[in-house]
Amino acid sequence: MDELTELLTRAATAAADYRRGAHLRDVGARIDADTLRERFGGELPREPTPPGEVLRQLRAAAQDGLVATVGPRFFGLVVGGSLPAATAADMLATGWDQCAFNAVVAPAAAAAEQVAGEWLADVLGLPEGVSVGFVTGGQAANTVGLACARHHLLARAGWDVERDGLAGAPKVRVVASRERHATIDASLRLLGFGTSVLEPVAADSNGAIDIADLERVLDSGRGPVLVCLQAGNVNTGACDDLRAACGLVRRHGGWSHVDGAFGLWAAASPATAALVDGVELADSWACDGHKWLNVPYDSGFAFCSRPDVHAAAMSYTAAYLAGSGTGSPALGDLVPESSRRARGFAVWAALRELGRDGLARLILRCHTLARRFASALADGGAWVANEVVLNEVLVRFGDDEQTERVIEAVQREGTCWLGGTTWRGNRYLRIAVSNHSTTEADVDRSAAAILRCAADVRNAAGDVPPEHP
To answer: Which keywords fit this entry according to its UniProt record (predicted)?
Structure first.
């Protein structure tokens, strides 16, 4: 065995060992940040280090500092782990080391993205012929979608924003729910709109946009209008009424963008597809692969119903770029980066591994397990604040202080990992079920651990069991 083969084999074996044992370990890290920094620290060596020794040192330094996000009991954020085929494909993508800018420099990467993009649009219920850019995640996907809207709306008003910028441009109205994800605000900053341009719309009791208030806001002004909708509220999983909302936006001649980082996947299962009814009526969409498709980080998708607008908003040409500015939009014409990894290989592999029916079962299973989680915690005395419509559960124990202590206790205890959130002024445990390997037993074990931690916190403080609203 040559040295490179031995090195990569050792790395693959170490990765497989970690994955194989992820369900057995404490989910959270078991080392403090200062100790980790010391392990990785020290002066940079003057002389080269053999690659095999570097790998050994890396494994030793990272030991106990990894959070088992790939495992079945990580419920913090919406992190799905990664499927076996997608993981292997991503390892190959690293080994192949393709610069996925266009089909001239990376023909296999281009073919994989083109086919995977068509499959994605199909399972997500998007119109045939939409363009798709493979980006890093929801932030980049939202930014691309809003850039497409900016180009289209201002071009229709006679303004070339790519040439002339926003100074002196017609004002674009930006309308979004008060329950929008924070990446919408970040995208508006990056694109030069600023956040003060936002016209907020009320949300209903579960976090979906209030259609009557959306109509009121749209009727209250004139001019080019961009409406940001949501499939999958980050706290509750709620989805906006896309059919009604997109209909209103069309009546006003506006652009509808759907932030569907995880909620767009509801379309892939007949059991949850009604949550995103009317999704095809929007103009652009953002979605993540490293969430519910269970591909490795980082992976996201920016879709646009008008490929020409998509390319006009994102592409650039340069004499040194082979194939630049010729023919139909290339991979790099649809995303912010020209230097980019070949993310399509892992997406293609995940979709092949699951198939249409397997993907539908994955979405339904996570939805069912989230409801099981909520039921077990409610039966144990917790207050579940949201209607569990997708895969998110909000849980509260007593007041904010007690809830925060429960979160900290659960993270220390190790059976599962979840984070906290503030929703409508109150603190909650936020549980997101999105991993392909999570089972009923994992949910039951995790719910029991959460309730034990809550009881310990309550007993330590001498509190009485809380009465919930």
So the answer is: Decarboxylase, Lyase, Pyridoxal phosphate
